[in-house]
Amino acid sequence: MCGIIGIVAKIGNVAPDLVKGLKYLEYRGYDSAGVATVEDGVIHVKKDKGMVDDIEKRMGLSSLPGSIGVAHTRWATHGAPDQVNAHPHTDCENKIAVVHNGIINNFNDIKQRLIKAGHIFKSLTDTEVVPHLIEENMKSGLDFKSAVFEAVKELDGSFALGIVSVYEPDTLICVKKESPLILGVGKDAMYCASDVSSLVPFTKKVVVLDDGELAVLTPTSYEIYRLPDFSRKDKTPIKIDLKVEDAFKSGYPHYMLKEIYEQPTALSYTIRLQEHYLNLMADLLDRSKEIYIVAAGTSYHAGLIGSYLLSKMARLVAIPVIASEFITSYGDTVSVESTILAISQSGETYDVLKAIEYAKSRAATILGITNVLASTLTRVSRVYIHQQSGPEIGVAATKTFTGQLAVLYQLALIAGKRRGKLSQRELDDLKEAIHDIPRVVEETLKKTDPLMKKLAEKYCKSKFFMFLGRGLSYPVALEGRLKLLEISYIPALAYPAGESKHGPISLIEEGVPVIFIAPRDETRKYVLSNIEEMKARGATIITLGEEGDKELMELSDDFIGLPPVNPYLAPIPYVVPLQLFAYHTAVLLGRDPDRPRNLAKSVTVL
Ligand code: M6R
After folding, report:
1. Cα dihedral 523→528→529→534 (10° resolution)
2. What is the C-alpha to C-alpha distance for residues 413 and 373, in angstroms, rounded to an integer?
3. Candidate of 294, 345, 381, 597 to mutate for ligand 1, largest count of ligand atoms within 8 Å of Cβ
4. Span from the CA of 551 to the centroid of ligand 1 (angstroms)
5. Closest CA to 573 of 583, 561, 585, 582
6. CA 59, CA 216: separation in Å to the nearest integer?
7. 92 carries an active-site annotation
8. Of 76, 201, 218, 253, whose CB count within 10 A is highest?
9. From CA 475, how far away is CA 572, in angstroms rounded?
10. DSSP SS3 for 363
11. What is the pLDDT of residue 244?
């Protein structure tokens, strides 16, 4: 769960561009960062604990000389997040430098063998075995390229590697196995990086590497080889359509706020999905004996809503499962008749990919919903849908959540139509409601943001929050709670409102804030009773409901009114004030909402 980038150029120093690229990759981890370049037979390395901008100010990463180099931003797995463990790592002689994203499972065996052979290790990382192994292979007479090939054969695990050396100062070698890696083809320069957005400032021509591929880059060429026999493979670059400004903050103080505000626009893209792919997916869902929706974190919350929608609109049973629990809980029931609908904004979440790998080995059909083109999920899915929410940099998922929901609504609608479970009237109403959703979200943002800021000021010192909802509003409660706790670090609980009396109610005492999600739907009348139960025990009641809902207003200490919306669609606007509440609370408490502690945007480890 790190970000890597490498550049080999015909002329000029590459360090400034490496640093620029690193900034786009910080969402993948920001424990430490570093750059290595090659010039005049010397590897130059600068690296430290902390974030790219700070290290740049302190050490001047971009002042390193040389027209070839690699760089890294780290989310620590092996070894503390300090300077010694920061990448790039080098061999004993400082002739080879390596950056790595992923985990090398058998590093300890290799390390012990190399230590016996006289190698001296500086860090506690798994990565450091790679430069030493290449060094060892070169000692036995192999040239740089062959030494890398032989080293890679020995590595077990998931990795994306970028490797440079003084031996071939115009050759950058990169390898992909399970961790993402994309090549960029520029004019008189070649690139490799963990994602497409970090390449956008330099080139729009990319080559997506598949698992088990290794690329040898020079300023004007790229050669791709396949493991384990290193047979040559030809791949033509594809053109990507991303703008540089898409990945910047556009004047907002934080990416998270910018991304919350981008939701109306992002949704307007997502609701224009090509029907062809939705039809294909709906068809495959229809033909399955059982359907599992597999996802993690926020994407799992979207999956819960998707399961509800498929049941209500298409009468299809789809079991939502947290990805890391899937193999243990349902593995034995997966067969050629099963379909896995995997939801992952990054398309790289390890738990999701492992569940898919397992399901594939049992011949199940894989469908994917993701926000990252060329991510692993897009490559392992029989059919995938790119939700087109635009790059999301803030660690907390916001616009990608509502985007996932917009995909799921369209999918459930098409499945319902194909299966004849929706009347023409219902179909027309739902279609209209989906098309109106960007406007509803726009209005929700305008109406609720100032109020959510005030409520954050009022409640930010609370020690605990409870979020309650029924039906479709239960996953919204879960998502509101996840947003708040992950970026403000305030403990919180979310429950189906009807279940709260079976235990969580014992946590209620005078003044505990309980947030109810109560749109005008079939569950509202029961929620009113749950509000009474909490009120009777002294809770402070905060409710989200339809504007003008007098009954709710009378029961509430604070009421947030939202524009009227079709009850099926309510989760999209109703999550928005909760995102804003989490954001303002975190900022008031002095937290960085874009980079919450211990978290990374893309969780590519077990
Ligand atoms: O990229 P994915 O959608 O697969 O990510 C899943 C979770 O890691 C992610 O939703 C995480 O929970 C976020 N921090 C939520 O804001």
Report:
1. 120
2. 24
3. 345
4. 36
5. 561
6. 30
7. no
8. 76
9. 11
10. coil
11. 58
Residues 6+ apart with CB under 8 A from 496: 468, 469, 470, 474, 477
What CA–CA distance (Å, rounded) separates 217 from 223?
7
The pLDDT of residue 421 is 96
How far, CA to CA in Å, does 577 sit from each of 121, 198, 265, 343, 583?
51, 31, 17, 23, 10
Question: For the domain bounded by 445-593, which CATH number is listed?
Answer: 3.40.50.10490
Q: Where are the domains of the chain?
A: 3-246, 249-422, 445-593
The one catalytic residue in 258, 447, 483, 601 is: 601
Q: What is the mean pLDDT of each run of 10 residues along the chain (606 residues)?
A: 92 97 84 95 96 95 98 81 93 98 91 97 96 97 96 93 97 92 96 90 92 96 93 91 59 89 90 87 96 98 98 97 97 97 95 97 97 86 90 92 97 96 94 96 97 98 97 98 97 95 89 97 95 94 97 97 97 98 98 90 71
Q: Give the DSSP H/E element, type plus range, for residue 289.
A: none
- In degrees, rounded to 5, the angle at the alpha carbon of residue 381 between the alpha carbons of residues 378 and 385 is 60
Q: Where are the alpha helices (DSSP H) in 36-100?
A: 52-59
Q: Which of 2, 111, 174, 447 is catalytic?
A: 2
| Domain 249-422, CATH class in plain words | alpha beta
- Which residues, in sequence order, are bridge partners of residue 540? 513
454 Cβ contact partners less than 8 Å away, ≥ 6 residues apart:
none
pLDDT at residue 551 in the model: 96
The verdict on whether 601 is a catalytic residue reads yes
Cα separation, 479 vs 301, whole angstroms: 6
pTM of the predicted structure, to 2 decimals: 0.75
- DSSP-assigned letter for residue 244: G
* Cα–Cα distance, 356 to 465 (Å, whole number): 35
CB distance 478 to 301 below 8 Å: yes
Distance CA 146, CA 447 (A): 63
Best CA proximity match to 568, nearest among 296, 310, 240, 206: 310
Token representation of residue 505: 């109610």
**Per-residue b/e over 307-316, b at no fewer than 16 CB within 10 Å?**
bbbbebbbeb
Q: What is the pLDDT of residue 391?
A: 78
With CA atoms as reference, report the closest residue to 30 among 102, 104, 105, 86.
Answer: 86
Tokens read off for 196: 């497409």
Does residue 299's CB lie within 6 angstroms of at least one atom of ligand 1?
A: yes
Same fold, 249-422 and 445-593: yes
Ligand 1 pocket, 351 CB below 6 A? no
Q: Distance (Å, rounded) from C-alpha 96 to C-alpha 147?
A: 11
Residue 605 has a pLDDT of 66
Rounded Cα distance between 197 and 240, Å, is 10
Q: Within a 13 Å sphere around the CA of 27, how many CA atoms are in the beta-carbon half?
A: 22
> pLDDT value at position 320?
98
How far, CA to CA in Å, does 566 sit from each of 124, 315, 412, 431, 448?
55, 19, 15, 10, 19
3-246 maps to which CATH number? Answer: 3.60.20.10
